[in-house]
Amino acid sequence: MVIPLGKQAADEHGPDSNVTPNWEISWDGGAMTSARARHAASAFLERTRQSGLISPTPHDMQNVQLVVSELVTNVLRHTSGTGSLRIELAPDGTQARITVRDTSPCAPRVLERDPGRLGGHGLEIVEAVSRSVSVEPGPDGTGKMIIVDIPLTPAEPANWSSGQTRVTGAGRQTARSSQDA
């Protein structure tokens, strides 16, 4: 069963808020799948996009979903399956931090590159699309946390005082200045 630990809906905060939007979920055993994790990550990013906090490109969305999928798959395949997933956005919207926690104290390892090998490329892929990847012990001394920072396309600053809006590339509304008219 999937149990939301703490959901902080991104749409509760305006673009100028100092609150970092985040979403977190935990699970026991076989209650999670990588497909569910991908879907949840996508839904979170879409809510924050609709709120104007971030303006992720389709490429940004795919990278976040890919990293979530690879890390959750590793938890399900190589540990007891119990874990948690947290996604946080930097206040300026330029980065997503994905933290996956599991019960195993063993650090993951990137295997030597071997194009002929089936499987075992997940961490290699995660490193390729990420700004940074780190592994830390779990906060309570059990298990580990894998922390991945993924760059996002920064949201365009908006001047909402003009009262006029236009739709930009990703479908996000921004203010239209008098010079644009």
Order of helices and strands: EEHHEEHEEEE
Radius of gyration of CA atoms, rounded to a whole number: 18 Å
Strand order of the largest sheet: 1-2-3-4-6-5
- Structural class given helices, strands, pairing? alpha+beta
> Spans of 5+ residues with little confidence (pLDDT < 50)?
1-17, 157-181
Q: What is the strand content?
A: 25-35%
Estimate the mean pLDDT confidence.
Answer: 76
Number of helices: 3
Number of strands: 8
Q: Tell me the major beta sheet.
A: 6 strands, antiparallel
Helix content: 25-40%
Shape: globular
> How far from one another are the termini?
53 Å
Q: Can you give a write-up of this model?
A:
The chain is α+β, with helices and mostly antiparallel strands and 181 residues long. It has helices at 34-50, 58-78, 122-129, and strands spanning 2-8, 22-27, 83-89, 95-102, 132-137, 144-151, 165-167, 173-175. It has a six-stranded antiparallel sheet with strand order 1-2-3-4-6-5, covered by helices on one side. The longest helix is centred in the middle third of the chain and has 21 residues, at 58-78. Mean pLDDT is 76; it is low at 1-17 and 157-181.
Structural descriptors:
single chain, 181 residues, alpha+beta, six-stranded antiparallel beta sheet, 3 helices, 25% helix, disordered N terminus, disordered C terminus
Concise structural overview:
By secondary structure, the chain is of the alpha+beta class. Helix content is 25%, strand content 27%.
